[in-house]
Structures are given as structure tokens and as C-alpha cells.
User: Fold this.
Amino acid sequence: MNTLIARLLYALAALLARLPWAWLRRLGDAIAARWIRRDSRESRVTLRNLELAYPELLPGQREQLRQQVLRTTARQALETLRLWTSPHAVNLMQIREHHGTQHFDAALAAGRGVIVIAPHYGNWELLNQWLAARTPLAILYAPPDSAIGEAFLNRVRAAHADAGERVTQVRAEGTAVRQLFKRLKDGGVVGILPDQQPKAGEGEFAPFFGVPALTMTLPGRLAHRTGATVLMAWCERIDSDAGAGPLFALHLEPAPAAVADGDPAVAVAALNAAVERVARRDPAQYQWTYKRYSLRPPGSGEANPYWPDCY
Assistant:
């Protein structure tokens, strides 16, 4: 039943995504305006995150950034529906600039395995499609709370894959570490979104925009144990108003060596610093609607900064 409902949702998403790009942009802007007008959860979480991450901003500056974030977030949601339900070869034509692809080619040729660290910045789903077009890829993901939502996610990420595109989705639980470890030992490629908050006791706290954030230790552990090459990667939006749709610049670069340090505290600090550097390129393209700081360091006495206003 979940699979059937997911198929129906996919069909509806495909219909919506066929609207002209200009219409999708206007619809996204209308959604963002509604979030702001109704003070939605997305709007409240974004503001709280910006208060934590950018305390130096004046209230008016922060409000302006919140509106930019929400507009970009809404546009991206509709843009992603289009990318999920269109042939990958067509989608990849939206990438007009390629920076650092030689690092990816060299890492593949080395045969030691590749860990691609992909922050929630720009459009990470388009990045996934670019990677999958080059090589088989395993993606670590946090399963949605809804079984239907997970079935839909599996459906859209498998759609329109050409024969050479093989994407394995690995749930971030249970046997995930063993699956990813084996793939890397075999010289394969693993993609990880590093700025998802792990469960309590499954990560280390490290500064992120100056605020301690519970951070996954998995990328560092995998890199340290396997010797795999670690790359930072993102698809940055460079033109959101083009008539042919949003245009992107693909970026790949070596991650800081400390990301693979044997000391988890050192590794997660380096990881967060690298993600923050990407996010600061254009804060409006980063995912600020996520409760990144809800878990606080044990013994700190700090309360969940989102409670109760952002629930």
C-alpha cells in the first residue's frame, strides 16, 4: 500500500513539476510569503537558527535574510520535484560551471574509495545525480518518520536512472556502517549529508557557527579506517531567474585532512568548519529550516532553543 501511494504521489509531483519554470518560481515565492505571513514552523525555525548563527546581525538584517532563506527554500522544494521527475541527462544540463572535477576523477582512479561530503547547500539532489552519472554511488540517508514518505523518497531517487546510474540508498541505522565500509574498501563512492543531527550518544559536539552542535562521527571514522579520499561537494545556484530554469555551478574540493583524524573530537570540529565555510558562501542557499541545535551538550544546563516556540 505504501508503495502504491508513493507512486500516486510521484505522479502528482510530476504533473506539478511540469509547470513552466517561471510559474514554479512564482509558486515558490507565494509559499514563502505564506510561511512568513502565518509565522509557520519553517519561518520560526529559520529565525531561531539565524539568531543563533548570526548574533551580530541587526534585527532588520536578520529579517531580510530570513525572507531570502524561505524564498530560496520554497523555490528549491519545487525545483527538486522537477529534478526528481525529469530525466537526469536533462537535469544535468542545468549545471553550467564545473569546478574541481579533476579531484573526483583522481580520487576514483586512486581506487581507495571516495567519501563525498555534501552539505545541505544549493541543490544536493542535483549533485547526487551528477555523481551517479559518473559512477555507482551509495547515499546515506535519515529515513523519514513516515513509511509513505520513505517509499516516495526511494521512488523519486530511483526514477529516470540510466543503465549506468546505480544509486544504493543506505538507511542511517543498523548495518549502515558495515555497508559503507565494504563499499569504500572495494574502491566505491559514498555520499554523506554531514549536517544532520545524529541521535543522542551517536555523535560529538563541535562548534557550528559558534554554537555547539551534535555532529555525526561517521565520516571521520570511515575515512580513518579505510584511507578513502574525502571530498567536499556542492551544487551552488548561480542564476535563479533564468527563463530556462535555475542554473548551477558544481564544486568539488579536497576536505581538510583533519576530517579523517583518529580523534573524533578533532574530526567533527574540522567537518563542521568545512560545512560552515560552504554555508557562508551564500547563507540563503543553506538549509536553515532544520532544528540543528535541538540536542544540547550533557551537563551544560542549556535548554532546547526551539522549545516551545518552534514546535
About this structure: Residues 2-285 form one domain. The mean pLDDT is 92. The longest strand covers residues 229-239.
